[in-house]
From TrEMBL:
InterPro entries: HATPase_C_sf, Heat_shock_protein_90_CS, HSP90_C, Hsp90_fam, Hsp90_N, Ribosomal_Su5_D2-typ_SF. This is Chaperone protein HtpG. Molecular chaperone. Has ATPase activity. Pfam families: HATPase_c_3, HSP90. Signal peptide: none annotated. The gene is htpG. ATP binds at residues 31, 35, 77, 82, 90, 96-98, 117-122, 167, 341. SUPFAM superfamilies: ATPase domain of HSP90 chaperone/DNA topoisomerase II/histidine kinase, HSP90 C-terminal domain, Ribosomal protein S5 domain 2-like. It comes from the Bacteria. It is found in: Cytoplasm. One of its GO terms (molecular function) is ATP-dependent protein folding chaperone. Keywords: ATP-binding, Chaperone, Cytoplasm, Nucleotide-binding, Stress response. PROSITE patterns: HSP90. Homodimer.
C-alpha cells in the first residue's frame, strides 16, 4: 500500500502558531536572544574540536538596536551563522530545530547551554513584525545570504553582503492598531525591561546603544545627550557561582535587584543539587511580612528558569502554602518545557524539585531555631502565623513537618517556647501539655481556670492568636503527650482535691435550679476542681472551646457554632456560701446572684454581656 505524507498547510500553521502559542508578545525578544546565544555557544563547541577556531569570549556579543524612524528592531550576533541550506532548513521549516540537531550531532550530553529545541521560537518574531529579514554568514562560508519573509507568503533567499560571520535579524514592526501598539518595542526603557526580565542571565553580553544625558561641563543645569553602548544583562547567574565566592552582601544585592521585596532578606538558602534532578536555587526568607501577605491578593511562587532563561515569574508549585513567604528562584536544566516555554510538559521534575526545596527550607528553619534564636524569633513574628495555618490546613497533612517549628508564649518563661522545650521541662508526674487561650498573655495569666494547673507547677502554653487553638487541636499530641486546655472538663490531674469537692445532694438540686434560671445559656452548672481564689468560671464541654466559638463567630461565613458552656463554681469561695444561703430562702436574690455570676463568667472569658443594662441594674440591686 502506498504511504502518503501528511501535508501541512504551512501558512495556516504559522498563523496558528504565532497567535496561539505565546500568551505575551514580548516573548519574541527572549526567543531571538536565546537563538543568538545558542549560535555563539555553537561557536564555542566548534572551537573545542576545530583547531583553526579560537574562542575568545569577549569577541562574542549580541547587539540590539531600535530605529524609531524606520520602525525596525535589529538583533545582531557574532555566532556561528547559517549557510544558505541552513537558512532554508531551519527558518523555512516550522518545527525544525537546527539547535537540537547540533546537540545530537555533537553528542553534547551536558549541552545545557543550548536553549533551542522545538524549532518554533524564531517565528515569534511575526507576532510583532510583518516583515523579517535575516542576513547570515556561516562560519563555513564566505558568502552571506538574505532570508526574507512576511510570515504569510513563504520566503525568499538571495545572496547578500556581510563582512563578519554571524546573523543579523531585522524586524519591521507591524503598524499600530486601535487596540495594540508595537511602538513600545522601539523604546529603550521597554527593551531594557524585557531583556532584564527574561534574558538577564544569558552568558554573553547583550549590548545596546542607549541615550544618556550628562550635565554640561560648564553648567550644572544644562544637560547634553549622547549615545553610549551599554551591556544590559548581568550575564553570570549568581546561583551558578560557588557559595564560597559569594558574600552576604551579594545575596542582599541579588534580592534587591530582583525586587523580591523592599526589605532585606533575613536568611538566604543557596542550593545546588546534582542528583536525580539537577537544579540550582537561591531562596530567601524576607525580614518583614509583605503588606498583602495575609490577603487574597498575595501570590506565592518562585521564579523558574530553564538554563538561565526565565520561564515563569511565579511558579506556585515550587513552594507549599505554609512556606509561601519564601522568595527566590530555581534554575534547572532538566525541565520538560512545553513549546511556548511558558509551562512544563509534565511536572515530575518540578515535583521533585519542590519536595527537595521544602525539606531545605524546613531544615534551614530548624537550624535557625537551634543556633540563632534571636533571628528565629524575628522570623516567627513575621511568618509564624502561616506555619500554624499550615498545621491546621489540609486536615493536618503537614503537621509532622511543622510541629517543631512552632513557638508559643508560656506561663513560666518570658519568651516564646517550642514544644520540645516544653516537653523537656515537664514535671515528673505531668502527663499532658496544658494550654490556655485568650487575647493576650496578660489576660490569660489572670484567667481563673489557670490557677489549679499553675499551682501544680505545670507550665501552660498561652495561645493568643485565633489560629493557635485550631492548630493545637489538629496536632492532638506532641511526643506522645496530649494537649489539654486548662478549661476542659477533665484536667487529667489526679488529686485528692477531687474528693474534697464531691457534690452534695443539696448542691445538685441548687445547680438544677440555676440551670433553669440560665436556660439556653449554659448546658450545666457544677462545682469546679480548678478554681482556687476565683468564685466562678465558664468552662466548655465537647470539642468546641469558647475561644474557638469566638473565632468561628467572627468569620464571614459564621456557622453559628456554639461551645457547650458550663458554669463552674468554686465551692470553697465565700460567694458560694452566700449563694447557698439565698437558695430556698429568697428566690429573687438567688436568681440575682445566679445571673450576676453568669455575667461575671462571660466577662472573664471576654464574651459580650447579653444585656449590659440588665447587668448594671443587677449590680445596683446588690449595692443598695
Ligand atoms: N541567530 C541565529 N544564528 C544561527 N542559527 C540560528 C539563529 N536563529 C535561529 N537559528 C537556527 O534556526 C533554528 C530554528 O530556530 P527557532 O528559534 O525557530 O527554534 P529553536 O531555537 O531551535 O527551538 P525553540 O523553539 O525551542 O527556541 C535554530 O535551531 C537554529 O539552528
Amino acid at each position: 500500500m502506498e504511504k502518503k505524507q501528511f501535508q501541512a498547510e504551512s501558512k495556516r500553521l504559522l498563523e496558528m502558531m504565532v497567535n496561539s502559542i505565546y500568551s505575551q508578545k514580548e516573548i519574541f525578544l527572549r526567543e531571538l536572544i536565546s537563538n543568538a546565544s545558542d549560535a555563539i555557544d555553537k561557536m564555542y563547541y566548534r572551537s573545542l574540536t576545530d583547531e583553526n577556531l579560537q574562542f575568545e569570549q569577549d569577541k562574542y556579543a549580541i547587539y540590539v538596536q531600535a530605529d524609531k524612524e524606520a520602525r525596525t528592531l535589529t538583533l545582531r550576533d557574532t555566532g556561528i551563522g547559517m549557510t544558505k541550506e541552513e537558512l532554508e532548513a531551519n527558518l523555512g521549516t516550522i518545527a525544525k530545530s537546527g539547535s537540537l540537531a547540533f546537540k545530537k550531532e555533537n553528542e553534547i550530553k551536558d549541552g545545557h547551554d543550548i536553549i533551542g529545541q522545538f524549532g518554533v521560537g524564531f517565528y515569534a518574531a511575526f507576532m510583532v513584525a510583518d516583515q523579517v529579514a535575516v542576513v547570515s554568514r556561516s562560519v563555513d562560508s564566505d558568502q552571506a545570504y538574505l532570508w526574507q519573509s512576511d510570515g504569510t507568503d513563504g520566503y525568499t533567499i538571495e545572496p547578500a553582503e556581510k563582512d563578519e560571520v554571524g546573523t543579523t535579524i531585522t524586524l519591521y514592526l507591524k503598524e499600530n492598531g486601535e487596540e495594540e501598539s508595537f511602538d513600545e518595542y522601539l523604546e529603550e526603557y521597554r527593551l531594557k525591561q524585557i531583556i532584564k526580565k527574561y534574558s538577564d542571565f544569558i552568558r554573553y553580553p547583550i549590548k545596546m546603544n542607549v541615550t544618556v544625558s550628562k550635565p554640561k561641563e560648564d553648567s550644572e543645569e544644562e544637560y547634553t545627550e549622547f549615545e553610549e553602548e551599554q551591556t544590559l544583562n548581568s550575564m553570570i547567574p549568581i546561583w551558578r557561582k560557588n557559595k564560597s565566592e559569594l558574600t552576604d552582601e551579594d545575596y542582599v544585592q541579588f534580592y534587591q535587584d530582583k525586587r523580591y521585596g523592599f526589605d532585606k532578606p533575613l536568611e538566604h538558602i543557596h542550593v545546588a543539587v546534582d542528583g536525580a534532578v539537577r537544579y540550582n536555587a537561591i531562596l530567601f526568607i524576607p525580614e518583614n511580612t509583605p503588606y498583602d501577605y495575609y490577603s487574597k491578593e498575595f501570590e506565592k511562587g518562585l521564579e523558574l528558569y530553564a538554563n538561565g532563561v526565565l520561564i515563569m515569574e511565579k511558579s506556585a508549585e515550587l513552594v507549599p502554602d505554609y512556606f509561601s513567604f519564601v522568595k527566590g528562584m530555581v534554575d534547572s536544566e532538566d525541565l520538560s518545557l512545553n513549546i511556548s516555554r511558558e509551562m512544563l510538559q509534565h511536572d515530575r521534575q518540578l515535583q521533585l524539585i519542590a519536595k527537595n526545596i521544602k525539606s531545605k527550607i524546613k531544615s534551614q528553619l530548624k537550624t535557625m531555631l537551634k543556633k540563632d534564636r534571636e533571628k528565629y524569633d524575628k522570623f516567627y513574628q513575621a511568618f509564624g502565623r502561616q506555619l500554624k495555618f499550615g498545621v491546621y490546613n489540609d486536615f493536618g497533612a503537614n503537621k509532622d513537618d511543622l510541629q517543631d517549628l512552632l513557638l508559643f508564649h508560656s506561663s513560666t518563661e518570658n519568651k516564646l517556647v517550642s514544644l520540645a522545650d516544653y516537653v523537656s521541662r515537664m514535671k515528673e508526674d505531668q502527663t499532658h501539655i496544658y494550654y490556655a487561650t485568650g487575647d493576650s498573655v496578660e489576660r490569660i495569666a489572670k484567667l481563673p481556670q489557670t490557677e489549679m494547673v499553675a499551682d501544680k507547677g505545670y507550665e501552660i502554653l498561652y495561645l493568643t492568636e485565633d489560629v493557635d487553638e485550631f492548630a493545637i487541636k489538629m496536632l492532638r499530641e506532641y511526643d506522645g503527650k496530649e494537649f489539654i486546655s486548662v478549661s476542659s472538663a477533665d484536667l487529667k490531674i489526679d488529686d485528692d482535691e477531687k474528693a474534697e469537692q464531691e457534690t452534695s445532694e443539696e448542691d445538685t438540686a441548687m445547680f438544677s435550679k440555676m440551670k433553669e434560671i440560665l436556660t439556653g445559656k449554659v448546658k450545666d452548672v457544677r462545682t469546679s476542681k480548678r478554681l482556687k481564689t476565683h468564685p466562678v468560671f465558664l468552662a466548655a464541654d465537647g470539642d468546641i472551646t469558647i475561644e474557638m466559638e469566638k473565632v468561628l463567630q467572627a468569620m464571614p461565613d459564621n456557622q453559628h457554632v456554639k461551645a457547650e458552656k458550663v458554669l463552674e463554681l468554686n465551692g470553697n469561695h465565700d460567694v458560694f456560701a452566700s449563694l447557698k444561703q439565698a437558695y430556698g430562702q429568697d428566690d429573687e436574690k438567688f436568681a440575682l446572684y445566679t445571673n450576676l455570676l453568669y455575667s461575671q463568667a462571660l466577662l472573664i472569658e471576654g464574651l459580650p454581656l447579653e444585656d449590659p443594662v440588665e447587668f448594671t441594674k443587677d449590680m445596683c440591686k446588690v449595692m443598695v
